[in-house]
């Protein structure tokens, strides 16, 4: 009997050891020494870091950023692009609503779902054309080794200082509307001007799209979730139950026209959305992706702040996050990229 108990005990330890080994060695995480925040040269609070995927499958990671100010904790979640096994993906997220210099940036949370396929085969070309310039910026080329076109591609990298420590995260400035199979395109990437003189080298290059942000608002006393993608900054998001409309404040600080793309769960197959900037109607590109989610996209004028109102919502059929929302994350990024491509193409032809 004692021998049996001892055997069971050691078998149990072995199983626990296997489980521990899995979690200790197959993780998705953000290293403490590759995460931070600072106010950039424009005074915008910027969070930088890199997600490491040590799983043996491709994943879609979500980064939850927690900020504490005057005893109040504010959390925002951002979904990144697909990350292949044993790869990293840097991120650089602007949070304009942060103004307090007393803000405490807490430890981030990285969660993920397994992707159904690897990221598309877009590669940075590591040769003499990949150059760090005297002013701290870098340039190089990427090539599409895949068999299909890709849209809305951005190049990310971790930037290290002259002391060899994590300094910043970079993102390419080009708008790549479409990249055909075999095509090679140049990219450039700049550190924040405040940090340019400290740059030593760039590493961990990764390809992806801009992060999408999932927002929760109260609608009819229940939770209503939607996602958006924009290079502009959105805040003060509320749902007006009387008007059955979503209101948002959007600030586009950039000198060029930008876009915002809202993604809403399907509640009415015949829904017809309208959007208004400061009470004036704007042209809207409305579409549905393959999973049935509505996309409502339109342009934002350069260097401007506007009150947005979106109307046309159907009756609310569910209060909580859809059960298939995890699968939705797998398709939302390429769907967004396609919509962005259409908006840019439309803008060029006008």
List the helices and strands and how they pair.
Elements: H1 2-25, E1 28-29, E2 35-39, E3 45-53, E4 59-69, E5 72-79, E6 87-95, E7 104-105, E8 109-114, E9 122-124, E10 131-132, E11 138-144, E12 154-161, E13 166-171, E14 184-189, E15 199-208, E16 212-219, E17 222-230, E18 233-240, E19 245-252, E20 258-264, E21 274-277, E22 280-282, E23 285-288, E24 294-300, E25 304-311, H2 325-349
Antiparallel strand pairs: 1-3, 2-3, 3-6, 4-5, 4-7, 4-8, 5-16, 9-11, 10-11, 11-14, 12-13, 12-15, 16-17, 17-20, 18-19, 19-25, 20-24, 21-22, 21-25, 23-24
Please identify the top-level CATH class of the largest domain.
Answer: Mainly Beta
Structural class: mainly beta
The portion of residues assigned to helices is: 10-25%
Largest sheet: 9 strands, antiparallel
CATH topology of the largest domain: Jelly Rolls
The count of DSSP E runs of length 2 or more, i.e. the number of strands, is: 25
* Low-pLDDT segments: 1-26, 318-350
Provide the succession of SSEs: HEEEEEEEEEEEEEEEEEEEEEEEEEH
> Number of helical segments?
2
Shape category: globular
Keywords:
350 residues; Immunoglobulin-like; 3 domains; disordered N terminus; nine-stranded antiparallel β-sheet; 14% helix; mainly beta; Jelly Rolls; globular
């Amino acid at each position: 009997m004692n021998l049996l108990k001892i055997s069971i005990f050691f078998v149990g330890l072995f199983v626990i050891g296997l489980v521990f080994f899995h979690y200790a060695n197959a993780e998705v995480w953000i290293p403490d020494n590759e995460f931070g925040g600072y106010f950039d040269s424009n005074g915008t609070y910027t969070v930088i870091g890199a997600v490491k995927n040590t799983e043996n499958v491709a994943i879609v990671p979500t980064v939850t950023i927690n900020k504490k100010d005057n005893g109040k904790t504010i959390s925002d979640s951002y979904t990144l692009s697909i990350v292949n096994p044993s790869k990293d993906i840097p991120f650089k997220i602007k949070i304009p609503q942060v103004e307090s210099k007393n803000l405490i940036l807490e430890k981030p949370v990285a969660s993920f779902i397994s992707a159904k396929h690897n990221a598309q085969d877009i590669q940075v070309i590591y040769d003499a054309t990949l150059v760090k310039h005297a002013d701290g910026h870098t340039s190089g080329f990427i090539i599409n080794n895949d068999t299909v076109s890709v849209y809305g591609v951005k190049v990310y990298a971790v930037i290290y200082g002259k002391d060899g420590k994590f300094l910043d995260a970079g993102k390419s400035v080009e708008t790549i509307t479409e990249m055909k199979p075999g095509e090679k395109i140049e990219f450039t990437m700049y550190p924040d001007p405040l940090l340019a003189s400290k740059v030593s080298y760039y590493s961990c290059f990764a390809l992806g799209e801009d992060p999408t942000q999932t927002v929760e608002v109260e609608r009819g006393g229940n939770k209503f979730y939607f996602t958006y993608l924009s290079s502009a900054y959105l805040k003060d998001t509320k749902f007006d139950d009387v008007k059955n409309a979503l209101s948002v404040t959007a600030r586009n600080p950039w000198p060029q026209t930008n876009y915002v793309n809202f993604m809403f769960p399907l509640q009415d197959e015949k829904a017809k959305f309208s959007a208004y900037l400061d009470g004036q109607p704007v042209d809207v590109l409305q579409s549905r992706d393959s999973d049935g989610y509505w996309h409502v996209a339109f342009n934002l004028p350069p260097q401007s702040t506007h009150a947005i109102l979106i109307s046309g919502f159907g009756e609310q059929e569910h209060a909580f996050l859809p059960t298939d929302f995890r699968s939705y994350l797998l398709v939302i990024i390429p769907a967004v990229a396609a919509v962005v491509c259409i908006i840019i193409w439309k803008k060029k032809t006008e």
